[in-house]
Amino acid sequence: MSDTPIASVQPVESLVIPERLDGRHGANRGAIGGSQLSATNDLDAVRAWLSNYADTKTTFDSYRKEAERLLLWAVVQLGKPLSSLTHEDLLLFRAFLANPQPAARWVSATGGKYPRDDARWRPFNGPLSPASQQQALIILNGMFTWLVDAGYLRGNPMALLRQRGKRAAPRVTRYLPVSLWDEVKGFVEQLPQDTAVQQAYAARCRWLTTLFYLQGMRLSEVATGKMGDFSRRLGADGRDQWWLDIRGKGGRERIVPASPELVSELTRYRKANGLPSLPGRTDDTPLVIPFRGKHRCMSRSAVHDAIKSVFGNAADRLRACGPEFADRADELDRASAHWLRHTSGSHQADGGVDLRTVRDNLGHVSLNTTSLYLHEEEDKRHRETVKRHRMNWEAQTAAEPGSMESDH
């Protein structure tokens, strides 16, 4: 370990790393003159890696978070440059992710999130779950591999960590089964509409749940989408086909069928907001219209809060039915916008829609990802097991002593 570490954790934008810790003389640096980067220190090299993801905010934020945690841990806690980390150091870091200590230095005091320029900001809001730990290591392994490929580092110490045996991918669990989805729709349908404010709220709730569910969209896709992204063309049968153009994860574009039901709901929502029934290609009205200012897209957090309020209020309505509904209400309380995307995929897959169609509608790269939405076969397996695989204690008790057949 090198000299005394620097004292405090700060976001990388404001972090000042002394020369002895900035990696210009890191033990794992590549050969002199062999780097394809202009970066001469670890922080600049990490920034060069991150620049590949600058056009996708959610990915950039996620990757910066993991790189920042490792860089800060190395220089603040270990007193070593990132480019001097060894296999043994990364074993310690893996344990650190599960329990970031000292908590006062690393973890938000309230477990909440603060702006990056707030003095209360910390790299962690609490210990990471096993899934989050694994995701962090995957991201960092990709970063190290890139730095090696760029000639900045000699080798990738992350690659030496023992990989857990591959397990069968679990089914998606963060989705609403049909019974809970019906509770959400029931709540939306009974919303009061006596005043203009109530009418606007009810119209938004109905459109939000319809759009997320029928199109299987991500939060960012809904937040940035415009009405002009809808288009129609003539089908082979001579009838109009409506489609929705979506710019998705990683900037990938996809076109998703818009059913007559969705177009009808679009017309209903537009009329409620004083707009013509159908949009034209130049219509820059946001997909979800703010209550104030019809031509300014809502932020991701605002759309998130809007759909969370639907789930929360639906949960309160269910909870009021009696204590026996508490568990189902709690499940609704946990739901978020992404649950609706999973719900859309799950209901399509279990409803018999071809997996290739579901894949393309949701914008998945791999059919393996889409197959995680198949729940019907597991439901069937559960029913069969419960029905046919039993202990039958009651039969044992009723039998006369000595009347049991021999083992077979």
From TrEMBL:
The keyword Cell division applies. Keywords: Cell cycle, Cell division, Chromosome partition, Cytoplasm, DNA integration, DNA recombination, DNA-binding. Residues 171-388 form the Tyr recombinase domain. Gene3D superfamilies: 1.10.150.130, Intergrase catalytic core. It holds the Pfam family Phage_integrase. SUPFAM superfamilies: DNA breaking-rejoining enzymes. Residues 385-408 are annotated as: Disordered. Residues 40-148 form the Core-binding (CB) domain. Its main location: cytoplasm. It comes from the Bacteria. It is found in: Cytoplasm. This is Tyrosine recombinase XerC. It comes from Paraburkholderia haematera. The lineage of its organism: Bacteria, Pseudomonadati, Pseudomonadota, Betaproteobacteria, Burkholderiales.
